[in-house]
Amino acid sequence: MDPLLAHEWSLTRRHFLGRASTGIGLAALATLLGDDLLAQIAGAAPTLPAATGGLPGLPHFAPRARRVIYLFQSGAPSQHELFDYKPKLAELRGSELPESVRGTQRLTAMTAAQQSFPVIPSLFQFAQHGQSRAWVSELMPYTAKVADDLCFIKSMHTEAINHDPGITFFQTGAQLAGRPSVGAWLSYGLGSLNRDLPTFVALVSFGSGNGDQPLYDRLWGSGFLPTRFQGVKFLSTGDPVLYLSNPPGVDAAGRRRFLDDLQTLNRIKEEEAGDPETATRIAQYEMAYRMQSSVPELADLSKESDRTFDLYGPASRKPGTFARNCLLARRLAERGVRFIQLFHRGWDQHTQLPRGIRGQASDVDQPQAALVQDLKERGLLDDTLVVWGGEFGRSVYCQGKLTADNYGRDHHPRCFTIWMAGGGVKPGITFGETDDFSYNIARDPVHVHDLHATMLHLLGIDHTKLTYQYQGRNFRLTDVGGTVTKGILA
Fold first, then answer.
1. Is residue 455 within 8 Å of 387, Cβ to Cβ?
2. Pairing of strands 200-206, 232-233
3. Hey, where are the domains in the chain?
4. What are the φ and ψ backbone dihedral angles of 206, each rounded to 5 degrees?
5. Are 184 and 225 in contact (CB under 8 A)?
6. Beta-bridge mates of residue 55
7. How far apart are CA 453 and CA 446, in angstroms?
8. Rounded Cα–Cα distance for residues 410 and 393 (Å)
9. What is 58-237+319-488's CATH number?
10. Range with the lowest mean pLDDT among 30-34, 173-177, 178-182, 372-376?
11. What is the pLDDT of residues 217-230, one digit of tens each?
């Protein structure tokens, strides 16, 4: 066949539509690089705008928050041991959980075959703190000190009963993999506040508790959105970002020449195939080049004061810890990163819960309180939304053998506790209530979709209007649900 005719036959409708968008992609790239190019012509340093990218017309209304720090506690922290104080359980210890309370709830395979469901109160002491009189257990003394800055939501609930769908639900608004993550939606809708750093950064730390659940890169992925909106994972050893340093024998000028030549080849490929991902690749290479200067400065904590390290705790001097990541989160927030996600693993205490949760609480208590205090002292808390919580809670009944000083708890999606701070959230309140067993919601339920709708609302977004068409349907983070929880808004 004639090569020209073969090429015409290969042009599908997708190729045609993709090629039609080429001009748009190059225009966007010109916008991204235009300031730098003009600055080079004028011999001046590039001027970074306050925000770049994002959809026209967003935010829909005045935002209360400009950025989010999400402290995700992977594995499901027990509300019984941390925040949801149930004093009546002490007199019911070892008694059978009433059928009227348990109802027809679906159980996991780990406890469904149990013949007995004995009630267990927490082994730890609770006290009320601050003017808000919030209940916080002895496991989190530092968090107790900032209780008046927090909004506790004790009526969170979800349909997911196992870890992977549960975590995926909180990150993407769906239990099945493949949807964009929250940070990707915000990158797509609101754009970047700093062109020299990623719009969305993920950091992972390992806890000292038992049962580290796996985490997958798709949890900070872009799903069906263009890949430029996915999160960038920062590493705890070596370069903070993969391939940040130049290879041996390659200097900055050589890398620049290489990227210029690669960009030329990518533009040729884009003209041939019309794939919008090629324009994304061009922009990503330019971002990577700029990060060679911005990321080392970000990760260099040598100028942080001893007081700051003392505030976050001794673990903040050790790379890869939750404390270190909390300090990095503050630095990322200062520099305009839109969505900062910290994953802390190890909260899955099916057995030996008292020992495991002591370690986990110790990992996070001081640094998360320090983060709230640090943001507040620097004037960043007002427009930074901080969210803390896991994928579900833990059961009031014992999993495994109950002894005087040891017990375990199974997954419990019906009710659990998270907290929020800053960014337009009402401080010093407790929203929602559970029954005497912390097994069912008694008042003001908050669903995963409601949480997402509220987060978007605080960022100035109507969650029903932030959509993306995929496979013939307009998708959104909150799917077909979600109501803004107005009771927590300041």
1. yes
2. parallel
3. 1-47+245-305, 58-237+319-488
4. -105, 130
5. yes
6. none
7. 11
8. 8
9. 3.40.720
10. 30-34
11. 999 999 999 998 99
